[in-house]
């Protein structure tokens, strides 16, 4: 009964590629010109982001009465249109439901529920994997969520193609329109489309959208959230139109410039045959028209049919996309009927070449580039998986601040919003499909990942698996070979990889183009000898575990020191893996596990109250741990850096030796305590420096020298008692688009403004004006304080508040206070 939205696409694509029987146009010549952009008329297509106006309530996975009678009479499967639940109908009273904004993750609001004593080990592991939130089979009352919203449909929409685009709903969701089941997705990660035109009222009667989302089962071993945690768009297009993911832009580059190949899928949603022409315009990165392609020949479309049209154009002097120069072009595709524009879509693309080579490593546009990567899950303090676009952007900026140029979306396709940000900021991306198998669901998810994302220049590799049990076997090879073949059909421009933790001498390693090593980086050099010329990357490297701002292990308190020394048995320190990869140009790079801490999989302490991982170079709030500066030092050698650890507030330990480290890329580092030199040392290549310094309060300073000149310094000053709060953020002028936000760091400082490094002060947050507080965090992996609300403790001196605009132009103020301390305020301005 659930229509498979991609099935016709697949058929159409196969048809189109096989011979373009239905109306393909021959490649068309481009009229090259650089003219000023003409102001675009509004697109005849309507795209509306459904962010506000949602109502939400928990249903029940085991009790029909508490699940809005879902399942009563099994109506969906018997009599379509006879509501499967009253909650899918417009006249249902949802006034008691919560008002929520999408993206939304209801799991982040749930209480923690550590297993009671004496549960099976597997059950305990499962609870730990999801961060001990009360969700899953044992919590049917928390595991089903219902969403409702009215759809903005008018009389003018009648006869048009109307669909909903969901970028990610976790998970097993059914989408209802006016009581009809219209579509859905089992996958919590792959994007999907639901056609809804048939179910709508066009006469002014309200149109009710409802979703039942069932997160009882998970798909991963990490916190996965629950609900509509990525964007939802409503699209209303002319009956003759470009369907979702219907444009594909590829390019090749040589000395003569770029050859751009354009494929356009066209669809006819009408009951009558139609005929269209296509017109293309390419807009250069500076906004001028680079090229136009005159309207094509007529393309015939059968009722309900599709066609594939091809065109090509040349750009003699393209501005190439690279991590340093993320130039983006826009393809404007217009569908014409009788010369009139009836539909128009814009597709951003980048022009660049990528090459993986087993000897020379990786290159962009022919220039060698080491992949300085991070693996990440989509998860952040305060909001869980429901990350607003502005927070994605902030996380990318924090990651680039560490010197990273690449991101692996583990272990699922990245959000389109994240991909847009990566395109625009030069962050390269490995997109990974969730299922390494070839059943219809897995193939469909892979296809949805590639069709939704292949225009993004940021994507450099498709990953078809991660640490699969069958990875080293012949069956594992077979499965991956099928997935790789599908990747190549859908996108012959990119290579494939698979993350493996063993079995690299056969199995799936033989099926993919670029072999991925998870950890065991020290095995790569010998493997390269056995497989000369085969490209290789570290798909997971490191990973040091650390508690931000902590400098002594404390097993009872689940605290891990933040020197680069602690790692699980399968992993390594930052220094160990990076020295190997840095030394071998043939290893294309590595992706640390992880950039950010994430909820669930609490390692190295899998027991409550550890609720998040300790792997990140940054904590769950994106606040840097000390290892962030190790990477920053060696990944951005053009920027001199010295970073000193630990803090210098060791009251009661006077005279005792303290282990002091300096990360940095200066040639030499001199350490001084209260102005007295403790000597200068040469910084080892890709290493760090260490001293034992008897503690005396005051100032510990590191000075970095290059060719005898002072190039960088860092200081740690002994702090007094907490006296005041300080608020720090990058931007106080923000867009009043309802999404933009400030990630505000709260510092607990002493009377002189020095950070109090162990302060765990309870803080109270208040926001007034055109903003709302959407989440709080402090980076403590053992904190079980709520993510929402108005109070949170500082952790090792710091906390974070996420302050998002309401969408109204105007000012807002965040005030943070704590008993006995001077409060702090921050003014934000949300502009049109
Ligand atoms: C890998 C896995 C990751 C994460 C990591 C922890 O095996 O791919 O998802 O579990 O180990 O070290």
Automatic annotation (TrEMBL):
Keywords (alphabetical) are: Glycosidase, Hydrolase, Signal
Transmembrane ranges, per UniProt, are: none
Q: Where is the DUF4982 domain?
A: 655-712
- Residues in domain Glycoside hydrolase family 2 immunoglobulin-like beta-sandwich? 247-352
Q: Signal peptide location in the record?
A: 1-29
Q: Which Pfam families match?
A: DUF4982, Glyco_hydro2_C5, Glyco_hydro_2, Glyco_hydro_2_C
- Outline the extent of the Glycoside hydrolase family domain: 725-826
Q: Tell me the protein family, please.
A: Belongs to the glycosyl hydrolase 2 family.
Protein name (Swiss-Prot/TrEMBL): Beta-galactosidase GalA
- Organism listed in the record: Novosphingobium pokkalii
Please state the gene responsible for encoding this protein: galA
């Amino acid at each position: 009964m659930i229509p498979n939205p991609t099935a016709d696409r697949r058929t159409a694509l196969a048809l189109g590629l096989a011979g373009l029987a239905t109306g393909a146009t021959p490649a068309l010549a481009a009229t090259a010109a650089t003219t000023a952009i003409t102001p675009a008329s509004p697109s005849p297509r309507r795209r509306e982001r459904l962010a506000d106006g949602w109502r939400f309530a928990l249903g029940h996975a085991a009790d029909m009465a508490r699940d809005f009678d879902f399942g009563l009479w099994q109506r969906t499967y018997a009599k379509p249109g006879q509501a499967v639940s009253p909650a899918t109908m417009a006249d249902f009273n949802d006034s008691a439901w919560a008002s929520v904004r999408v993206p939304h993750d209801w799991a982040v609001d749930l209480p923690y529920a550590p297993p009671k004593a004496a549960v099976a080990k597997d059950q305990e592991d499962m609870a730990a994997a999801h961060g001990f939130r009360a969700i899953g089979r044992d919590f049917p009352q928390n595991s089903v969520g219902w969403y409702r919203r009215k759809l903005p449909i008018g009389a003018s929409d009648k006869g048009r193609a109307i669909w909903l685009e969901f970028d990610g709903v976790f998970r097993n969701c059914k989408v209802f329109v006016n009581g009809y089941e219209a579509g859905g997705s089992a996958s919590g990660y792959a994007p999907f489309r639901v056609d809804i035109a048939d179910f709508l009222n066009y006469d002014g009667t309200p149109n009710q959208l409802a979703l039942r989302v069932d997160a009882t089962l998970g798909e991963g071993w990490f916190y996965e959230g629950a609900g509509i945690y990525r964007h939802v768009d409503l699209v209303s297009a002319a009956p003759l139109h470009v369907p979702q993911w219907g444009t594909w832009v590829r390019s090749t580059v040589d000395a003569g410039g770029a050859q751009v190949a354009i494929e356009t899928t066209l669809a006819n949603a009408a009951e009558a045959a139609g005929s269209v022409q296509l017109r293309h315009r390419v807009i250069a990165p500076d906004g001028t028209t680079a090229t136009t392609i005159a309207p094509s020949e007529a393309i015939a479309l059968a009722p309900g049919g599709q066609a594939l049209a091809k065109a090509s154009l040349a750009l003699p002097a393209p501005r190439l996309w690279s991590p340093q120069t993320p130039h983006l072009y826009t393809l404007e595709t217009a569908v014409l009927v009788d010369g009139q524009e009836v539909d128009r879509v814009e597709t951003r693309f980048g022009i660049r070449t990528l090459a993986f080579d087993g000897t020379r490593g990786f290159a962009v546009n022919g220039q060698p580039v080491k992949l300085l990567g991070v693996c990440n899950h989509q998860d952040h303090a305060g909001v869980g998986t429901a990350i607003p676009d502005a927070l994605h952007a902030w996380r990318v900026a924090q990651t680039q601040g560490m010197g990273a140029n690449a991101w692996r979306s583990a272990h699922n396709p990245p959000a389109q919003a994240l991909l847009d940000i990566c395109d625009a900021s030069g962050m390269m991306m490995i997109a990974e499909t969730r299922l390494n198998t070839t059943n219809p669901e897995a193939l469909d998810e892979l296809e949805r990942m590639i069709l939704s994302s292949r225009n993004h220049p940021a994507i450099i590799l498709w990953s078809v698996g991660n640490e699969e049990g069958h990875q080293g076997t012949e069956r594992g090879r077979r499965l991956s070979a099928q997935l790789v073949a599908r990747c190549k059909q859908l996108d012959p421009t990119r290579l494939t990889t698979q993350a493996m933790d063993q079995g690299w001498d056969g199995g799936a390693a033989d099926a993919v183009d670029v072999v991925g090593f998870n950890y065991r980086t020290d095995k790569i050099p010998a493997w390269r000898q056995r497989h000369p010329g085969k490209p290789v990357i570290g798909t997971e490297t490191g990973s040091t575990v650390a508690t931000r701002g902590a400098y002594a292990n404390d097993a009872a308190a689940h605290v891990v020191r933040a020197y680069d020394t602690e790692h699980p048995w399968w992993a390594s320190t930052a220094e160990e893996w990076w020295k190997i990869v840095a030394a071998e140009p043939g290893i294309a790079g590595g992706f640390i596990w992880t950039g950010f801490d994430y909820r669930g999989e609490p390692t190295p302490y899998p027991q409550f109250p550890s609720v998040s991982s300790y792997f990140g170079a940054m904590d769950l709030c994106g606040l840097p741990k000390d290892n962030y500066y190790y990477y920053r030092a060696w990944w951005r050698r053009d920027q001199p850096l010295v970073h000193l650890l630990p803090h210098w507030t060791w009251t009661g330990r006077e005279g005792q030796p303290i282990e002091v480290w300096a990360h940095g890329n200066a040639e030499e580092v001199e350490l001084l305590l209260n102005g007295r030199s403790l000597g200068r040392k040469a910084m080892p290549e890709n290493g760090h420096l260490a001293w034992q310094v008897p503690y005396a309060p005051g100032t510990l300073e590191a000075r970095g020298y290059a060719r005898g000149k002072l190039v960088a310094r860092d200081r740690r000053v002994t702090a007094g008692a907490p006296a005041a709060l300080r608020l720090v953020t990058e931007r106080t002028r923000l867009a009043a688009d309802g999404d933009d936000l400030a990630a505000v760091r709260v510092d607990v400082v002493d009377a002189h403004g020095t950070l109090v490094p162990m302060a765990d002060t309870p803080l109270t947050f208040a926001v007034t004006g055109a903003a709302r507080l959407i989440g709080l965090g402090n980076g403590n992996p053992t904190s079980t304080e709520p993510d929402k609300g108005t109070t949170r403790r500082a952790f090792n001196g710091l906390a974070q508040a996420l302050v998002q605009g309401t969408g109204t132009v105007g000012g807002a103020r965040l005030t943070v206070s704590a008993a006995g301390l001077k409060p702090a305020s921050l003014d934000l301005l949300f502009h049109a």
